[in-house]
């Protein structure tokens, strides 16, 4: 098999069935088996691209120099014309080996090519060029088609919890089809891809990947001022005031850690990694490696209940009815069981949201240490980044020595002051955690299939927060999440311009650009949580009805 040989979709399918990690970059077929466990962004980021044309995702997340080196993994070329995305195995895709008898295969002449997507047997394409679901897969991983599940008018089924859950999940899909361009219209999605690539070129031409270092000079003045006020008030024994300034310092400086994690400051892996390690691990006690591992998956498969760790918070929170059926997280390799605790907590999640956000930092400490002590951390980055894990352990240990021992234990006089200081300083971070959730928890969580373009998925699942330019420092760039998800490596001080370009892209493609004020955005999130709470009450009613009828036991 030569590097210039044309690999048909059947051949690629056979390679994937054989366990190989195959994806498409521009016209090249790449095999990333040897890079899978050395990828600095984590292996899951690659596994979610298997069988797909990952050109847009790769270009958005990697510098041109890195993309050039990736082409060294080329094993062949895709056929002339476009590539139709296959479902990655990690998402449930089933692949047939090369020697499998294909009754529906009639040769390449019986396949239809679509711009930028791939090949597909003609019996799976309707007259408008849209993909149809094969009869054998009609019920796989989706609700059984019925009148209510198809979005037709009528009351929800209340006799069976599973039927109600399927109906509720389907309503989200129907709502998306009513608002967003059809994800199954391959030609339409490819026109969005072309327009997105034109937008990306415009972003490059305008120099928006270039960091404005003068803006970081202003950031440094703010960080140093907050830390100096923390030390000044601590020395004068104004302990609670000191705690406030320490919390504000943590709040502000983590925005730069976010930039470094995306290599948006210097675009140099080593330098940005060191910046991120110093801020996140040494100054804040959080693992930048854990954050990058989970955050990269979040960016690629945003708001997926099964795959995105950022919305997997059962039993405390559920942002969609998909969680009503216990699901297995591909990120945590853990099953989130829907049990009595989840039913109880989610019913009141609209009330518990802000109190939990006030202490959410403590959970991040636990996740950080679990990451650096895990095998995934030890293999992350391979030989190129072998130094990251030991550096993280040392820096996080230093944080707990300085904060836990020198400050809390030695500098504070009593247990009451110590406890209050820790709580106040961490409660000051609540706006940061609210800001992080704000742009996603109120947005779509539906799976619209693999033909949906990268750009449409990001805009469908992400919302911007409207604010005047003079308030940008408060939000730290996180108010431009839709723009950031379209171009993750853009320095945050350039995102306001990218937002304007994204709105023009929205007008050209018909994909709504969601943007709300901070208060309205919070109302939307609380409204979503309250809606799911109401759905839980209906689910419990279904369970009670079946239990009384003797059909099932309560669970």
TrEMBL record:
Pfam families: Cyt-b5, FA_desaturase. Its EC number is 1.14.19.18. The chain crosses the membrane at residues 238-257, 269-291, 353-372, 393-410, 416-434. Residues 134-145 have a biased composition (Low complexity). Residues 4-79 form the Cytochrome b5 heme-binding domain. It is found in: Membrane. It comes from the Eukaryota. Residues 118-162 are annotated as: Disordered. GO terms for cellular component: membrane. CDD domains: Delta6-FADS-like. GO terms for biological process: sphingolipid metabolic process. The keyword Hydrolase does not apply. It is a multi-pass membrane protein. GO terms for molecular function: metal ion binding; oxidoreductase activity, acting on paired donors, with oxidation of a pair of donors resulting in the reduction of molecular oxygen to two molecules of water. Pathway: Lipid metabolism; sphingolipid metabolism; Sphingolipid metabolism. Keywords: Heme, Iron, Lipid metabolism, Membrane, Metal-binding, Oxidoreductase, Sphingolipid metabolism, Transmembrane, Transmembrane helix. Belongs to the fatty acid desaturase type 1 family. This is Delta 8-(E)-sphingolipid desaturase.
């Amino acid at each position: 098999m030569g590097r210039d040989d044309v690999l048909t979709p059947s051949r690629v399918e056979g390679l994937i069935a054989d366990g190989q990690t195959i994806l498409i970059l521009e016209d090249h077929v790449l095999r990333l088996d040897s890079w899978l466990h050395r990828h600095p962004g984590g292996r899951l980021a690659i596994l979610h691209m298997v069988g797909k044309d990952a050109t847009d995702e790769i270009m958005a997340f990697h510098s041109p120099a890195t993309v050039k080196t990736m082409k060294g993994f080329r094993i062949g070329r895709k056929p002339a014309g476009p590539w139709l995305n296959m479902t990655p195995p990690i998402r449930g895709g089933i692949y047939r080996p090369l020697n499998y008898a294909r009754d529906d295969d009639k040769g390449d002449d019986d396949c239809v090519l679509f711009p930028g997507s791939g090949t597909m047997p003609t019996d799976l394409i309707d007259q408008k060029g849209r993909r149809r679901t094969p009869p054998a897969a009609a019920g796989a991983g989706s609700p059984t088609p019925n009148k209510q599940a198809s979005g037709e008018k009528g009351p929800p089924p209340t006799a069976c919890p599973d039927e109600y859950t399927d109906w509720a999940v389907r309503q989200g899909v129907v709502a998306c089809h009513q608002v967003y361009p059809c994800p199954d219209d391959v030609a339409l999605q490819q026109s969005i891809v072309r327009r997105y690539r034109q937008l990306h070129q415009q972003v490059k031409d305008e120099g928006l990947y270039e960091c404005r270092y003068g803006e970081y000079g202003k950031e440094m003045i703010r960080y140093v001022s907050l830390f100096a006020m923390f030390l000044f008030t601590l020395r004068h024994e104004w302990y609670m005031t000191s705690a406030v300034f320490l919390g504000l310092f943590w709040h502000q400086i983590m925005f730069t850690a976010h930039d470094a994690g995306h290599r948006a400051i210097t675009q140099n892996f080593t330098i940005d990694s060191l910046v991120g390690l110093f801020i996140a691990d040494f100054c804040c006690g959080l693992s930048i490696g854990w954050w990058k591992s989970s955050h990269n998956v979040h960016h690629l498969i945003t708001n997926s209940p099964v795959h995105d760790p950022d919305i997997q918070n059962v039993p405390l929170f559920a942002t969609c009815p998909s969680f009503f059926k216990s699901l297995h997280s591909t990120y945590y390799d853990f099953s989130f069981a829907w049990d009595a605790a989840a039913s109880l907590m989610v019913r009141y999640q609209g009330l518990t949201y802000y109190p939990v956000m006030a202490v959410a930092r403590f959970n991040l400490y636990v996740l950080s240490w679990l990451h650096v002590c895990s095998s995934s951390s030890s293999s992350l980055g391979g030989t190129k980044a072998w130094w990251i894990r030991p550096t993280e352990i040392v820096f996080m240990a230093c944080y707990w020595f300085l904060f836990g021992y020198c400050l809390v234990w030695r500098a504070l006089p009593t247990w009451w002051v110590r406890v209050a200081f820790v709580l106040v300083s961490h409660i000051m971070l609540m706006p940061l955690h609210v800001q992080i959730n704000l742009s996603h928890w109120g947005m779509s969580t539906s799976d619209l299939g693999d033909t949906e373009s990268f750009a449409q998925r990001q805009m469908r699942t992400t919302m911007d927060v409207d604010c005047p330019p003079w308030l940008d420092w408060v939000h730290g760039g996180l108010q431009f999440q839709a723009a950031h998800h379209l171009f993750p490596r853009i320095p945050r001080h350039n995102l306001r311009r990218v937002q304007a370009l994204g709105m023009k892209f929205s007008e050209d493609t018909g994909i709504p650009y969601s943007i709300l004020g901070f208060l309205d955005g919070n109302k939307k999130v609380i409204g979503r949580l309250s809606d799911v709470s109401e759905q839980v009450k209906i689910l419990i009613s279904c369970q009670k009805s079946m239990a009384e009828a003797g059909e099932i036991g309560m669970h």
